Amino acid sequence: MKKFLSLLIITVIIISLIGCEKVISKDQEKGEDISKNKELTIVDYYPFKENTIMDYEGIGNEYAEQKTFIEFVEGNRAQMKIMNSGTNFVKVLEYKNGELTEVFAEGEFYHIENMLNANTNSNNIVLKEPLEVGNTWSNNEGSTMEITSLDRKIETPSGTYDALEVTTEFKDGGRQREYYAKDIGLVARIYNNGEFEVKTLLKKIDKDNQEMDILTYYPVAGDIDTVYIEQDIEFGTNESIEDILENVMKNPPSDKLIPSISKNTNINKIHLNRESWTLEVDFSKELLTDMNAGSSLEIEILKSIVNTLGKFYDAEKIYITVEGSPYESGHFSIKPGEYFQVDDSGIKEFKK
């Protein structure tokens, strides 16, 4: 039963989170009923805020503590990364025809990839207008969701809010209440099943970029060898991950290391082929024209490129093209459908 409840909590945790900045409305400060001022919409409670980290305290389960970040926003769609101690999860939310719907969801998502236009694999209604007490709908699992209050007072480490309350009745008898504050988003989630209770409470909101660790590989200057080093990168909403990875590969953290690509080389496009789970990476022509390396050094350069990209995207097969054509230098070449293989055997960590 305990294992089942833990799995259920993980599912509950990733159903609906959104990030936005810490703003208390004037109506909340005055204790006024905001429903009297204007017709409420989902946008009031789900603003897609860029470069904002929502940090939540967890009580009752290790997966209840988490952070969220909006990675990409375009029109009425937003992609959110949800990070807890168990996994990283991505979902795409769409606001359309008075409904906020989860249209894409994928777990174990530790890299950066824009999925706003990915094929729909989910159709879970998170919130539905009109935002009135008694409005009900069903989620993907067939559980009933209902707006049960427009001004429920809820206390969190970040403050006290008069919030929109949505209650979900699960088929196993469990109950979840989610609280959304105007101009802020989700401020609390409370799950109960008998005496078992789990809380996710908003702790703080930071205007900041998402930080993540990345293993980077570089050839060693003056030696035929490759080493790796763990570095931190930052990603802001709607930034280009190609540009960020370029910068990492062009700028090793020590003059004892050789950049894996030249200053003039660009990553034109990165695409993760989910059917074959092959990472497809297209470089500008400078990858070859600026290399100026013998076959031994070229091996280390390719090893550095392949391992850096493959480890970040958790892909073993890397298909490298240059201006759309399969990689071909004076020493090495691949044909369409062939690929380089991630191989970190024997590679040691770089010691400064």
From TrEMBL:
Signal peptide: none annotated. Residues 241-331 form the GerMN domain. It holds the Pfam family Germane. InterPro entries: GerMN (IPR019606). PROSITE patterns: PROKAR_LIPOPROTEIN. This is Sporulation and spore germination. It comes from Tissierella praeacuta DSM 18095. The lineage of its organism: Bacteria, Bacillati, Bacillota, Tissierellia, Tissierellales.
